[in-house]
């Protein structure tokens, strides 16, 4: 298993992985445009040339970042790939001197196992919501907010 930063050649695989889960209502979909614009945010797991896991660390505000677009291919779930991606993103955040990481998710138990705690979305700064205006769920977000202090 190789963990690395995403490149342009990965976008189609990332798009397919994310949107397969989005079609099931398990995560929010992402456009190719969004993936290209935020490509530097992503790390991924690659197994024999196949993208089997992805996650992004999106910088939001002073010492605040979001883990977003976490997805692991169905055939490798529970193999530690998701955990390794989150740990890689946390290490990247530490190097940037980020103090708090949050996530908005439909899979809170996964993040709780990584040390995140649930919080009210009202506790997040308004800056967090700037991209929500383009979401199909706006203004009725039903994702669960969690955070970790690092």
Short description:
It contains 4 helices and 7 strands. With 150 residues, the chain is an alpha+beta fold. Strand 3 and strand 4 form a beta hairpin.
Describe this structure in words.
This protein is an alpha+beta fold and 150 residues long. It has one domain: Aminopeptidase (3-Layer(aba) Sandwich), CATH 3.40.630. It contains four helices and seven strands; from the N terminus they run E-H-H-E-E-E-H-E-H-E-E. A seven-stranded mixed sheet has the order 1-2-3-4-5-7-6. The longest helix is centred in the middle third of the chain and has 15 residues, at 81-95. The two termini are 26 Å apart. The mean pLDDT is 91.
Keywords summarizing the entry:
26% helix; 7 strands; single chain; alpha+beta; 31% strand; 7-stranded mixed beta sheet; 4 helices; Aminopeptidase; 150 residues
Biggest sheet overview: 7 strands, mixed
Average pLDDT for all residues = 91
Inertia-based shape: globular
Low-confidence stretches: none
Topology as a string of helices (H) and strands (E): EHHEEEHEHEE
The level-1 CATH class: Alpha Beta
CATH superfamily: Gcn5-related N-acetyltransferase (GNAT)
Query: What is the strand content?
Result: 25-35%
- Work out the count of structural domains: 1
E-strand count: 7
Helix content: 25-40%
Number of helical segments? 4
The CA-CA distance between the termini, in Å, is 26 Å
The third-level CATH topology is Aminopeptidase
């Amino acid at each position: 298993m190789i963990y690395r930063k995403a490149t342009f050649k990965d976008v189609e695989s990332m798009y397919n992985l994310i949107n397969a889960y989005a079609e099931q209502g398990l995560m929010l979909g992402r456009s190719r445009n969004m993936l290209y614009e935020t490509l530097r945010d992503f790390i991924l797991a690659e197994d024999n040339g196949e993208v089997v896991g992805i996650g992004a660390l999106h910088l939001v505000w002073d010492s605040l970042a979001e883990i977003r677009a976490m997805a692991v291919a169905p055939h490798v779930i529970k193999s530690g790939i998701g955990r390794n991606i989150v740990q890689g993103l946390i290490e990247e955040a530490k190097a940037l001197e980020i103090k708090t990481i949050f996530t908005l998710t439909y899979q809170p138990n996964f993040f709780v196992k990584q040390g995140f705690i649930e919080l009210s979305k009202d506790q997040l700064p308004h800056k967090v919501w700037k991209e929500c205006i383009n979401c199909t769920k706006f203004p009725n977000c039903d994702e669960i907010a969690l955070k970790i202090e690092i």
